[in-house]
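Q: What residues go here?
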């Protein structure tokens, strides 16, 4: 059973690796006071309330492939479970090397963490570094550049496939997600508006060459140009900072034990640290690389979305469609999108 935290909406979501009954308690986790949401990732289509007991709403996300007649459910249940397990084993054995490169392992506390850029990953690397090194320091003391260059933090890809499988089976697997459109805007602000050598030169020059008549123009890349650049590329070739989250972490093959959200990052991180038995003194930091700037939340995101054409909006929605479905995000900018469509 996996825990998906979402305290901002006063919900506690449970994600089960397979269909089954939902219990009302989880050892080491928060109390269930409002909703229990049963998710079957990668087959999500629409929510359907199936029960309501003791003020706990149980919601199942029904997969179209599992819509069978009620009279056949009991007969097919055991067979379906066996087939699902066999399929998962086959998929797991083919773990993409790009996905393995996104996963970091911390052995002392048996943690596997999937790096999703623009979802607090630098601070999580600080945490992993401290845990692996056995340091007694605050995470805020670890410099940004050091944490992305150290060899102490190991990627899953550094190990042979049998060892990767062992870690995935026995370590606590953690992934954090963020509203796809906020993450997109955050990536643009962080990578294209600042003077990072690779993004502000190499990537920016490629974008200028694609969309400007004056190829030698040095004016900063606009958000419109940035989005046009992204939607013109094959999804699998996108930079990790704006590649869809489901491609980075492959939740269809890897059943994460804890799915946290950026919207409740501090509280969810606190639960992860408790779940893996980290020192009580260790806390997730609230560091931001460009501390003088406002974080990319709804108002800033909407400001940038207003710069896009209707066609760009539809293509961006399509690009991140699976992220919206799999991680239970809604288009909270629907008023704006409805006006543009």
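A:
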């Amino acid at each position: 059973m996996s825990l998906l935290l979402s305290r901002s909406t006063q919900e506690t979501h449970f994600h089960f690796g397979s269909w089954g009954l939902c219990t009302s308690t989880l050892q080491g986790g928060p109390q269930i006071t409002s909703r229990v949401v049963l998710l079957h990732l990668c087959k999500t289509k629409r929510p359907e309330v199936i029960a309501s007991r003791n003020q706990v709403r149980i919601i199942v996300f029904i997969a179209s492939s599992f819509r069978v007649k009620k009279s056949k459910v009991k007969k097919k249940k055991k067979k379906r479970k066996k087939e699902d397990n066999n399929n998962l084993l086959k998929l797991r054995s083919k773990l993409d090397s790009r996905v393995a490169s996104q996963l970091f392992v911390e052995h002392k506390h048996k943690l596997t963490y999937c790096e999703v850029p623009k979802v607090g990953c630098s601070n999580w690397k600080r945490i992993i570094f401290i845990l692996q090194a056995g340091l007694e320091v605050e995470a805020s003391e670890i410099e940004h550049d050091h944490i992305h260059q150290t060899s102490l933090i190991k990627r899953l890809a550094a190990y042979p496939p049998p060892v990767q499988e062992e870690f995935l089976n026995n370590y606590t697997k953690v992934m954090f997600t963020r509203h796809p459109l906020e993450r997109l805007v955050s990536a643009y602000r962080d990578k294209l508006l600042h003077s990072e050598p690779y993004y502000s030169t190499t990537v920016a020059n490629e974008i200028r060459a694609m969309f400007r008549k004056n190829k030698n123009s040095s004016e900063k890349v606009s958000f419109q140009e940035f989005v046009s650049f992204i939607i013109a590329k094959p999804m699998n070739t996108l930079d990790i900072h704006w590649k869809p989250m489901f491609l980075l972490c492959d939740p269809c093959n890897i059943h994460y034990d804890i799915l946290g959200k950026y919207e409740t990052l501090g509280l969810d991180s606190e639960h992860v640290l408790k779940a893996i038995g980290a020192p009580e003194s260790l806390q997730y930091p609230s560091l931001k690389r460009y501390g003088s700037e406002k974080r990319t939340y709804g108002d800033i995101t909407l400001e940038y979305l207003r710069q896009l054409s209707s066609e760009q909006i539809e293509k961006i929605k399509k690009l991140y469609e699976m992220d919206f479905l799999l991680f239970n995000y809604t288009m909270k900018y629907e008023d704006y999108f409805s006006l543009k469509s």
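A: Context that may help when evaluating the design: Strands lie at 2-6, 11-15, 35-39, 46-53, 56-62, 103-106, 111-114, 154-155, 172-177, 258-261. The first strand starts at residue 2 and ends at 6.
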